[in-house]
Amino acid sequence: MAEITAAAVKKLRDRTDLPMMDCKKALTEAGGDEEKAIEWLRARSKKKLEDRAGNVTAEGRVFQWLSDDGTKGCMIEVCCEQEPVAGSPDLIAFGEALLKVLVENEAVDSVEALMQQPHPDGSGTFAEAHEELTGKLREKIVVSRVARAEGLVGGYVHHNFKTGVLFVAEGEKGDAEILRGISMHIAGLKPAHATPDDLDAEAVTAEREKLTEQAKASGKPENIVEKIVDGRMKAFYVESGVLTAQPFAMDDTKTVSQALAEKGLSVKGFDLFAIGS
Q: Strand ranges (DSSP E) for the chain?
């Protein structure tokens, strides 16, 4: 068997960025052949990843990009098992490279398509880079979601990078301050729906009919009954997690819809990424 020199171990370490002991063991198993040692390391990494397949990935990081003119945005969620890994330079570099390619390739609209794109460093595809990363960090890592937004776009990523929002409004002209404010509101209150139209129509009809019957039982005039029902439906929308109906977090004297209307805007939609949910 060929002697495994310190220089050979260091050379493999420089190529793979894996621990010295792992590199020495790989070279030993490969009889000193560097290429075979790399294949051995990859096979072992794949086996370890398979062993961790069922592990929970409740930590991670959200990456976001917004165009300077506020008309486009992209967002990616990368999940992992442990918080220190989420903040590691290797995972951050991987996520930032993913985001760069997503921004530059508008035809890419899914995680699957993104992972097949070439990594900017020329080392192969992102799928191959992902395999290398999981082997190096020894942890299950999942690129779980991607999102694109076009129109009048606002965005926000919480300081811990675990929550990110892309918000899109409709109107003649954007307003960066209110768009960011609504994005922060979404990150904090986590609405489930953008507008009442996103709710199940049958459920909305059933609720209105129930409230109407209750109001009519009071014996009030028809026009008063209608106002009562409208008021109670607003409460129903808030309870159902409808963004437009929620009191605006920055000024709860008005709803999100009213705050936007003051700027000539209305809600179109949003994407909310919250790590662990």
A: 59-66, 72-80, 142-150, 152-157, 163-171, 247-248, 251-255, 265-274
Sign of CA dihedral 272, 183, 265, 71: negative
Pick the closest to residue 149 from 263, 67, 265, 261 (CA basis): 67
- The structure's pTM equals 0.81
| Rounded Cα distance, 251 and 14, in Å | 55
Instruction: Concatenate the DSSP letters of all residues of 138-180 into one string.
Output: TS--EEEEEEEEESEEEEEE-TTSSEEEEEEEEESS--HHHHH
Q: Give mean pLDDT in consecutive 10-residue pieces for the chain, a chain of 277 residues.
A: 76 78 80 81 70 81 97 98 95 98 95 96 91 86 97 97 98 96 98 96 94 85 88 94 97 97 97 93
Q: Could you tell me whether strands 251-255 and 247-248 are parallel, antiparallel, or unpaired per DSSP bridges?
A: antiparallel
How far does CA 218 lie from the centroid of its chain? Answer: 48
